[in-house]
Amino acid sequence: MMMSVPAFLLALAILIVVHEYGHYRVARACGVKVLRFSVGFGRVIWRRQAHPDATEFTLSMLPLGGYVRMLDEREAPVPADMRGQAFNNKPLWQRAAVVAAGPIANLLLAVAMFSAVAWLGQEQAQPVLGAPAAGGIAEVAGMRVGDRVQASSLDGQTWTEIQALPDLHWQLTQAITEGRALHLLLSDTAGHGRREIVLPLDQLASRELDAQALRKLGLGAAFSEPVLGRLTPGGAGEQAGLREGDRVLSVDGIATQDAASLREQIRRAVRDGEALPMQWTVSRAGQVLSLEVRPRLVEDGGQRLARIEALVGSRPQMVLVREGLLDGLTKGARRSFDVASMTLRLFGRMLTGEASLKNLSGPLTIADYAGQSASLGLVAFLNFLGLVSVSLAVLNLLPLPMLDGGHLMYYLFEGLSGRPVSEWWLKQLQRAGAFVMLLMMALALSNDMTRLLGLH
To answer: Which residue ranges run through the membrane (predicted)?
Structure first.
């Protein structure tokens, strides 16, 4: 939590500066005089201006945004000898380019961030899966414990290599969002015995990778050997004679396949409000031992679950995913395009009621994610910056008054009709846009509060 505020402010500063610099740089290139470049709104707390005719750079009290103020006859009188530098007197294509430059700058920042993530590389869990949930889509489709996902496809023709587990999660998110089946190419852990299965994700009622969709999917977590880690001193596991490093072979005569299935067996060892004794067979230093383990009951989310008070499962097998210069840049660009497309589709589904408005996040949730990503290291924080930068670009391109996309719609009307939008219509649209933005902000803050209070 301590990391959230500084990480959020740093991310916000980077995103605002890049966005406004896009407007500023293209405005200058088009010969528009820029009066002020401000990070934040409200009272100015810092300013710098090289000389009276230069652009004034300021830092203002409220850091939730920024602006570039240009010379414009609609805002203040302009001397006759400077009218050629006024924004409103520039050709339509130049005005549109200046407005579009902000979101484009954010998209370019996202490409840079995702490319940097690919270049730096990161340790990720290999795409080897544990036991799928009984009766879930994954099990019915034919997935088995220890399956390695080699590649995925949305059409069964064009395949994408799956290098690590996050790649699979991303492909699942895309398939569910688009309401399409996902083809998977599987093998055993060593890469032998390849086979293809199809996950019918198009049959899911939800178009979000939420808790309900995950339960129906029943996809196994990263494969982890059923080996015990650190035990709580005096806990149920230690009292039963279990030791760190024990490999669990079976529980109550049922062979233990992986750590996830073992944890599930432990949790369900409850009947009539009492923990059930369990007969464990473990391998320890070349010996096979039989032990009676009586878990301890705990309250978790209103349920009484059994626990052995020990770390269950070895660390999943990891792989360093790192790309070269061109491959990393290509991956960064493709990732930016995919995230932008998915974000735009999500906005559309929220508008039509096909997706929940709970997907809309505000500054509190973003600050929380910023802190979490920063605590995980540079690569995670860069990935977070890329995701938020794409979202900011897409949001700004929405055809809403007060946003860059709304101004582009004005210019589209001007280009098609040969005349600008009238002042009366501009005022009405600005009021409507302000109302919609206030609603969105209120909804986002409401979602933030319900998340923080654990009501989502």
So the answer is: 96-120, 376-398
